[in-house]
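Intended use. Records such as the Cation channel sperm-associated protein subunit gamma entry shown here are meant for training and evaluating sequence-to-structure methods. They are not intended to support clinical decisions.
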Amino acid sequence: GLKAGVPRASLKYTPVGTSCPQSSEAQVRKGHLTGLKPVVLVTFQSPVNFRQWKIEQLQIQMEAAPFRSKEQCTAEEVCVMSWYTPMPIKNGSVVMRVDVSSNGLGPFIPNKRFQVNINGFLQRQQDNTLHFTVGNEIFNLIPRYFMNVPSRALWHTVDQAPVLILGGIPDEKSVLLTDTSFTDFFLVELNIDSCWVGSFYCPQASFTATVYDAIATESTLFIRQNQLVYYFTGTYLTLHESNRGSGSWVRVLANECIKRLCPVHFHSNGSEYIMALTTGKREGYVHFGTITDGHVSFKLLPKQRSVCEGIQVANCSITWAVFIAGDYILMMLVEIQDPTTGKYFQVVSYDLVSDNLVIVYTIPEFIPDARGLEFLMILGTESYTNFPMVPKGMFHNPYNNLLFIWGNFLLQSYNNENFIYLADFPKEQSIKYLVNSFHGDMAIVTETEEVGYPAPLSKPQGSPFFPCHRQLEPTSQFQFQLYPLQGNLMVPVLIGCPPGKRLAFDITYTLEYNRLQNKHYFDCVHIDPEMPCFLFRDIFYPFFLIQDLVTGDSGSFQGSYVLKVVGGGPTMDTIKEYSEEEIYRFNSPLDKTNSLIWTTKNTTTTKDSAFNIMTHQSLGIEWLCLENSPCHDTIPHTIFAPEFFFKVLVSNRGVDKSTYCDHQLIFLLHIHGLPLSAKRALLILMVSSSVFIGLVILYIIFCLLLPVMVKACNILRWKINNIITSESYYTYTSSSRVFSGTSGTKSKGTSSVSSSVSSKVAEGNQEAPEETSKKQSIT
């Protein structure tokens, strides 16, 4: 038996061979005494947002240690001994797969595999109990919750959703939640307002509390009740590095009438997606939702006009939608009401990048007559039965590019152009939904709750599910049966990408090869050994490595790849992510908006000619930074030429036939020496010239006027001195007159004495200069 606690706890392993307690205790003792030590391998799932978290294929292998449990034991103490390992967690990962095997000693025990996921919708209370944040757990399970309840599909982001949600309980706003892939589950009544807003543009015949269309993503749950859509983001600190959890259910698209939610099973470009089909006033549009780091946003597609207007019909309704994330293509099943020809269905494709709407296929009105064949290629020349074709939905598998259209029939296409009718399905039945493992197995559930596990991949060519187009899927395990003369032997053959392989930027060889080809190498002024610079005017030749994280080996990557600039900024702090439309304009050779960041002389492109395909033998990258690109006319902040940081995405998916592995790498590229635009260069030249000329003119004026200014200053100083001297003389004269007037009032005796004294003093003063002059002349 195996027991797993919540994350941060430990894994408990007890080798129980039978259901008898005595035998269990004996097995435990025997295993411990004979050297049994379980080996635990924990595999961490990479997060969706590869921009915030580095993509890693990380595994940790641990050997369990015996430990005596603290539980009450009535027998010997060793009888409750178990084996334990710590449960590691990793930032950015909320889904962990655990494989437990034996070390080969002691009694035989079967291997065990299970998941330990982080449940971000649980909250620990003050009394140390766990409660759901999305609603209230129901402990009293009523039989009517599950009896005679129709089945429903389990929708979630494949390999990324830690918590799964399943609705459909009649007349109850309750759902089933599980974080163990339904090894166990919880019945939770949701805390939603259930506000029914019926109106003339959103008719609703009746109201029900049933929760429909429940979808789980990496950190967010979505539900639809009547025409209302809600979402709830869990608290995942290891994923978002902050508390972005919702305090309650958030209602979105409040003014819209939503008739169905359609899941997107695979994430792309660091985000997850969901689609809401409308009715009423928005008929013919799709609300396309994007979930990035727990943030939810919706936009209306198509951008310019409705699907009905795009295919030039008066009345139409979108029945189902499938988003092909790798190609950014939205496939829609459209029902058309024509007053003359009646009702018919078409498959319409919408390109989110180019905003192009195309009719892919018109579904036949009646079911073809296969005449005993297992499958029939639809060419338009075949005969038909009287049974009308009633399509209900579509399904796309990105691994083998197979598109299925289902209803009371099953159509299959591998190129979205040629369709094959699979005649094995009885036309009297109707398919309710498809379930796909994306590893080769698929199940069909009918409206009468009958289940069909179409033919496997190993069936001979001509199988109705893989006629004339057999393709082995990567990351799958197949079994081929061999028949020797003396019996048969089942041989497992592993096909796909080995674990632990990753793509890396070979900076050492890139620098060496660029220096050799360009005959020089100029690094940045401020050198960073971990991020060397490359000169804008030089041709850039990138090289990559394939690293084996298991063995530590590495070698040159010599396959094909697509290179895109997905972000950038003039500094590390100002780097921004580009939208899908911007990525197309900045990287596609088909761009007509003068927005290219780079170009290459290679002529090999993807099938739609949207992007260049590069190899290790490519002719290199020439930097352009055209007028409408983000790196055009970068303003320098110093006396040195401008520089720019590019966030570059490299992927070999869909373009490389040398390996089964789909590699993807994002790295920063530092480019310096960017040229200024002609306008800014002219402006700087004019300003610089004006400043220089102005300084020269000022210098000349200063040199010419300096003598005049000195003479003027001397004259001014002479005048000021004269004024000061005149003022002093006037003051002295005034003071003497006042003194003389006062002295006249004294007695005659005093006056005569004073006069005689003054006369003698005056005479003495007259003789003194003469003596002084004589002395000076003698000397």
